[in-house]
Amino acid sequence: MPSLKWTRGLSLKHSAHFPGPSTRRNPRADPGEIREWTILTSVTEAARVERLSQTGTLLFIGLNPPLTSGTRTRGRVELARSLLGFDNIIHSNLFALPTHDLAGVTAVGATEGGWLEARHQLVEQVARADAALLGFGVQSPSGDARRWFRAQVSWLEAELAQADTPVWEVGGAPRHPSRWQRYTHRTFSDRPFATALAEALRQRELQSAAGSVG
After folding, report:
1. What is the rounded distance in angstroms from the CA atom of residue 104 to the CA atom of residue 29?
2. 26 exposed, middle or buried (CB, 10 Å; 0-12, 13-18, 19+)?
3. Contact 185, 196 (CB under 8 A)
4. Checking phi first, is residue 114 left (phi over 0); if not, alpha (psi -120 to 50) or beta?
5. φ, ψ dihedrals at 163, nearest 5°
6. DSSP category for residue 190
7. In the prediction, which pLDDT does 207 show?
8. Integer distance in angstroms from the first to the last C-alpha of the chain?
9. In sequence order, which residues have a C-beta less than 8 Å from that of residue 129 and are 6 or more positions away?
10. What would you measure as the largest C-alpha separation in the chain, in angstroms?
11. Hey, which CATH number is domain 54-212, 3.40.50, 1.20.58, 1.10.10, 3.30.420?
């Protein structure tokens, strides 16, 4: 079965194995072939952006470690990795201390400790990564933790810019993976989750993230 090819510096092209958008095959043809063609055309038609090499490491940056296994989040991040074509993925967070939810970050993130601790790992992992996928959420904690959160996002943007790291988001914002399916269902309601996520993954300008969180 033909595979999808992502090439650094080149836009995704239709291969000889697939028809162009104006000559799509009958949906009643082989279901496996149609499923693969749907993913190919969704990325090509909706994104039309340069994709990265199949080799390399994707850095996922969440908000903070979970107190649970985090299986669902890791599964969705792994799906994003495969859609973008990276060989492997590493995980990091804006805040080092685990909590149940955003309210927990508000409670324990009012001082600098957990934010500065996270920077040590982030510096090392940004240096290792070929690209970053931001998924720390579009809402900030409240109280004093909000100030530290916003400072951390600004610091991270500077680190990514200095390293010249390509940055990816879902739907043009650093949405948390727990919100990806809700977003794709609302935006691409007629498509399966994997196909919709392929359309929603977008590379963005480095300086835009600070304005996309509350």
Report:
1. 51
2. exposed
3. yes
4. alpha
5. -85, -5
6. T
7. 55
8. 44
9. 57, 58, 59, 90, 163, 165
10. 59
11. 3.40.50
Q: Please tell me whether the overall predicted TM-score, pTM, comes out greater than 0.85 for this model.
A: no
Dihedral-angle region of residue 169 (phi above 0 means left; psi in -120 to 50 means alpha; beta otherwise):
beta
**What is residue 70's predicted lDDT score, i.e. its pLDDT?**
86
Cβ contact 202:47 at 8 Å = yes
Residue with tokens 């949405």: 175
Q: How many CB atoms lie within 10 A of CB 118?
A: 23
Distance of CA 71 to the CA centre of its chain: 16
CB 184 within 8 A of CB 174: no
Antiparallel, parallel or unpaired: β 167-170 and 88-93: unpaired
Amino acid at the residue 93: N
Whether the CB-CB separation of 148 and 185 falls below 8 Å is answered with no
Comma-separated ranges of CATH 3.40.50 domains in the chain: 54-212
| CA pair distance 115, 191, nearest whole angstrom | 38
Angstrom distance (rounded) from CA 58 to CA 166: 10
DSSP 4-45: ---BTTBB----TTS--GGGPPPTTS-HHHHHHHHHHHHIII
37-90 per-position pLDDT tens digit: 344 444 444 443 444 444 799 999 999 999 988 899 999 999 999 999 999 999
Distance CA 166, CA 60 (A): 12
